[in-house]
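Q: My labmate handed me this sequence with no annotations at all. I'd like to see what the chain might look like in three dimensions before we decide whether it's worth expressing. Could you predict it?
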Amino acid sequence: MKFIDKIKKNKLLYFLGVLIVGIFIVLIVRFTYAYLALNVNEARGDVTLNSDETDKLDFAVGDPLSIDATPTTLPENGENLVDTTTATATLLANSTNTTAEYPYWVYFTISNNTFVYSDGSTPEIILTVTDPEGNPVTNIDGLTYGTFNGVAGFDVTTQNGTFTVANGYTITSSSSTDATEQTWNFTLTYLNQSYDQSANYGNSMTTEVSMSKEEKIPTLADVCTSGDNLASCIAEFNTLVGDGADSIYYHDSDLANGAGDNSYRFSGANPNNYVCFGATGADCQNEDNQYRIIGVFNDQVKLIKLTSYGDYAWEQDWDTQGNTWDATTKPDIYTTLNDTYYNTLGSEWQNLIAESTWQVGGMAQGYENTAKQYYDVEVGTGQSGYEETMKIGLMYVSDYGYGAVPSKWTTSLGSSGYETGNWLYLGSDESILWPSEWFISRDSNFIGFAFRMDSFVYTDDVMNTIAVRPTFYLESSVVLTGGTGTASDPYRIS
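A: Here is what I predict for the chain of 494 residues:
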């Protein structure tokens, strides 16, 4: 008590004592609240939602269909070779509402198909599909329906890819105990024709039926399979699914703000357009052996190296070239690309690269130019006329412009931020601190300057050493041999 009386008589000690007690009470309250809140929250975490409020939609698919033609399975004057499977959707409504309705999608995928038309044109393998009502499906985009040697269905003899059998087909249920079932029937028939079909002995076809609660947007890898011509497949894919699918756009006269040159170009942040070049097998995982598809131009695929080949000057000493460019001017960058870099490739890869005409006359700097404006004066009707025939070049400014999402095609390439969402931006590799690279186009107003890209496009002294990424066109005969176009599984070509 004496101790407490002393505190009361000493105003400073009394004030500090009250303050300490107050803080202690606050801490106790907060600790207690935190402890209680923690326990309440943990208790809530143990609460489960009433499962009676959930509908149940399930899919079941039978064994994949397959056809293997041999003298035994397809004997002369014998029966047709037939394989069947089913796909079933089952819907059970929740017990609260006892009604449910959902759309779903059904797909048929053909992969690794090595069959041919034995006589050159007559259908031999027919796909027949019936819907849950027992009606024949007669319309599947990309396939031809008819009656072939007495069998009605779709000719899939030489087909590859994924085909939509049902697009948003509706299933309903009015019971929580008696499920609604919808079954699709699939039949593959290899017609035993009267002519010699031995050309297909040893060939095979692998298929898959799939069902989905959401629409599956086809990718280029779904359509392009081993043995396909790469350029043709990209064009056919775009025709099948339209602009924007897998980030591919067809630049015809109808595409707003496009190049208008009937090219197919990849645009956006990170399309699946990776290609292994200069290596095989596990070496394809090495970024140094990866390239990306800029697009298809006049039936030729145009590739650009994923990473920089190194830092080089566009021209070592432009003062020796005189005051104007002319047709005989050969800047050092041409030698760097067509000798130094080209000779690092093996002959089998060199032979896949086409000798091409590059528009190298240059153009005036236009800080406000859009992708289309650059295209017109760089390689379009407004270009200067200077050309160079060589195998290896660099990308055009307009290539970079059209690598961005379409919403940016009306934006100046000289504006900061154009690199955002543009897969061709070298700085997409976050390991590069100050990404800079040369374009092939020179500044027509001043011999000592050429176009370059940082986060925006401008011209700079050609003697500066910055990144170069070899760019080239493949021979039109190049075909796919594998891969899905991702960074982890790039396309393989030959």
